[in-house]
Amino acid sequence: MTDNTGWWRSAAIYQIYIRSFADGNGDGVGDLAGVRARLDHLADLGIDAIWFTPWYPSPMDDGGYDVADFRDIEPLFGTLAEAEQLIAEAHARDIRVIIDIVPNHASDEHRWFQAALAAGPGSPERQRFWFRPGRGPDGSEPPNNWKSRFGGSAWTRVPDGEWYLHLYSSRQPDFNWDNPEIRTEFEDVLRFWFDRGVDGFRIDVADGLVKDPALPDVADGDETPFSDQEGLHEIYRTWRKIVDSYPGERVLVGEMWLADMSRAARYLRRDELHSAFNFDFLVCPWDAARFRDVIDRTLRAHDEVGAPAAWVLSNHDVTRHVTRYGREGDTGFSFANRLHELPVDRALGTRRARAAALLTLALPGGLYVYQGEELGLWEVLDIADELRQDPVWARTGGKDPGRDGCRVPIPWSGDEPPFGFGSGGAWLPQPEEWKAYTAAAEAADPDSMLSLYRAGLRLRRDLPAGSLEWLSLGEGVLAFRIGTEFTFALNFSASPVPLPAGEVLLASGPVGTELPTDTAVWLKS
Ligand code: NOJ
């Protein structure tokens, strides 16, 4: 495989949520065999790397982010030998492989948590997690007021009376990173997978590993004692040394939802992580000035540390962007408020999603494509309550519908569910309308979302590198040049505007002498 310096600086990385990508053995759940059979779809799409969400043995309380063993493959997905084969097959197609690492917490079925439960209060086994006595005369109150990000308290009590911390579900106990054993363990896990050929890691909850050991109460919304603690940088410097000790260019990508972009950029200094998802871009409402602002802030913060930006529109945690953009008004995405009750104009959302794809593909840096976004899939909003699996649904008492709607299995071909996903149905029901959105149907249609992504991914390889210079083409029009020959324009305003001069390389919708509303264009000029 080629070893071009800095591949990750401009890479298009495709996110595979394995359970929902393709099912090779007919049990209704996606697996590694399914991915192997579909690698050509990814090669044809033109991506540079795959990021796999966790593939480790897991009781699947949180879709695999509850890891029971960091050195094996979930049996529902396949075997370790198969994972190694898959890595080799991807490499043979010049596709790199990034896997998820989940260092903030384990599954309650992890052997260390089971040992901690068995060993009892005060034991070294309990020091690997955050066990504490409760408050109140009989210890029946949690040790502090921290909330789980999935709803409810962040503490659960065990039969001997102690409580353990979990920032996510009660089946995801948080590791204690003050314990050197945890550090050594994860350094070894990194090596285990690098030795098997992976090209990098996406670090789950990268901002959360280190906690203020005083475990102080917090005011509502304050995450200071468990997010962005200074001690994290030392951990990532150690990890970076391991990464750099391997041949080829292997990478670390952080998942961090930090409010302050320049704080986030500190993790991207040259001896720490390579990149981090740009979630400010993801949550930006459909508005030219807001997009310009977030792009400016991103490029500035990243330039300061010499890191590339990584643009992202969707992932397995957020409402799919066809749906988000199909809501009128100032509806940026927020975890606290999924807005599922608002009406969705899907045609509008699709038009905007096409324009957003061209924006994302044109911006300097790298980008992520979440499986199904290249088909223009939308959030499935009408999943029956009894089928919902995301713990967010149960932990909020149904107030938050959770993330199942963006995790519905991918339609590949055919006229009826499961649309070629596998021979044994699909673990979440797919909408009937997806027959027009299968990969096969879209491959045959030059105007489909898939054709747009393919063309965009192919053409972007030849776009000039360089810094972005804003153009003023009127209010509501986001336009910039890169280098001397490339112009991008996206019309967010309510009326058409004159098409900028130049030869149209690609457009997200029909253009003539004018650039219509919610349409983007790439021009050679
Ligand atoms: C972020 C992951 O993307 C999400 O799916 C998961 O639930 C949490 N981290 C906890 O691991």
TrEMBL record:
Biological-process GO terms, alphabetical: oligosaccharide catabolic process
Pfam families assigned to the protein according to its UniProt record, in alphabetical order: Alpha-amylase (PF00128)
Superkingdom of this protein's organism: Bacteria
Residue stretches making up the Glycosyl hydrolase family 13 catalytic domain: 15-407
SUPFAM superfamilies, alphabetized: (Trans)glycosidases
Single annotated GO MF: alpha-amylase activity
Family named by the database record: Belongs to the glycosyl hydrolase 13 family.
PANTHER family registered for this protein in UniProt: ALPHA-AMYLASE FAMILY MEMBER, NEUTRAL AND BASIC AMINO ACID TRANSPORT PROTEIN RBAT
Protein's recorded name: Alpha-glucosidase
Organism: Amycolatopsis pretoriensis
Lineage: Bacteria, Bacillati, Actinomycetota, Actinomycetes, Pseudonocardiales
